[in-house]
Amino acid sequence: MNRPHRRADRRPSKHADVRASGRRDGPGVRPGSERAVPRGAAPGSPGAKSRAPAGADSRSAVARRAGPETTRPKIAGSGRAQLKRSGTKPAVAERPRPEPELRDDSAVRVLCVDAESDGQRIDNFLLRHLKGVPRSHLYRVMRRGEVRVNKGRVKASHRLRTGDLVRIPPVRTALAETPVRVPASRLAPLAEAVLYEDERLLVIDKPAGLAVHGGSGLSYGLIESLRELRPGRELELVHRLDRDTSGCLVISKRRSALRELHELIREGGMDKRYLALIVGELERAKVNVDAPLKKNLLQGGERMVQVDQDDGKPARTVFRRLGRFRAESGVLTLVEAELITGRTHQIRVHAAHLGTPLAGDPKYGDEGANRALKTQGLSRLFLHASALSFQLPSADRPNRVEAPLPDDLERFLSALEPAA
Questions:
Q1: Are 368 and 380 in contact (CB under 8 A)?
Q2: How would residue 299 be classed by pLDDT, with cut points 50, 70 and 90?
C-alpha cells in the first residue's frame, strides 16, 4: 500500500479459514444456501425439511506545564497521517433517509449459517442477506420474535454458529432504493486516517462528529464510508466509539479476524486507553470505579445509561490523574481512562458518578461548566481513544496503536493555565 500508516513489525499470520463440518442439515440445505418454504413453516416442520445443528521527559509542552505529577502517555507524533479537525462542524450531514417504496416477500425463508458467518451477530447477518429491507423494520421483526435461530427466539446481539438454521419471516423489501453516496469531501480525510493495517484488520483514527454507522436519521457513518472507499471488501466494525468520541477504532477485513477479535475482547485481551478532561479534581492519583451500568429509556424516548447496583451489568474503569488546569468554570483534570469492561457510555457515566463529569459532555455533563468551557473554545466532548494494545492468537507479536490528540482538543488544552 502506498498510503502512509503504521505497520507492526510482525510476520503474516498463518491462518486457516474455519471450514464447515460438512454435515447435512436436510435435503437441499447447504451452508450459505437459502430456499423458500410455505408461509408459517418453521424449521423442522414438514414444509421446511431441515433439522437443528448440534527515560527522558518526552512529554509535550502542555503536559510538562501541568507540573511534575503529569505523566501523560506517549502519543503518536503529529507527522502521522491524521485528520484535521476543528471541532466546530459535524463530520456527517444529518439528512434524513427518504422513505423507500416497499413490497412484501410472501415466503418464509430458512438460511443455513456457513463458516464465514460463524460468530456474526444475527442483526448484521440479516442486514447482509436482506438487501433493501429497512433497518427499522428488520429490528422490529426481531423484537417481535419472528426471526428464529434453531426454532428459538434470539436478541439482535445473538451470535451465530456454523450450521445454525435462521428462519426469516416475510419481510418488506425496498424497491429501487437510491444508494447512499458519501461525499468525496468526507472520503478523502478517512483515506489518510489509517493508523495501522495488515492483511486482516486496520485501525483508523475516527474523527469526532462521525457516527460509526448510519441509522437514526443519519444517511451514512464511518463503516459505510470505508466500504465505499474499498468496495468488495468485507469490512466490519470490531467495536464502537460514541459519535463525539475520536481516536482508535478497529475494523476487520476478514470474517475470521472479526471472530478472533470479538473473542479477544470478551476475554479482556484488548487494552483500551482514553484521554479525557474532567470537570473538578480526581480525589486520588488513581481511582478504580466498579459500578454496574444499566441502559434506561427515559420519557420522550431518550436513552440514558445509569449506575444500577441491583440490575446493572458489571462495569469497571480505572482513572489516572495526568495533570490539573485552571478554567473559568474551576479546576479541570486531565486523566487517562482504562476500560476494564466495555459498556455503552461507560467512561462518561463513571466520571459523572464520581462527581467529575467529562468536559463538554451534553448528556451526562455539567451544563453550566459546559457553557463556560464553550466560550473558551471547547465545542465538543473531550474524550479521545488514544491507544490500543492487543495480540491475536494467530499473531506472533502484539500490536500497539496510538492516535495523536486531535488538533481542536490540543489547542484548547494548550490555552489552559496549569494548576499547582
A1: no
A2: low
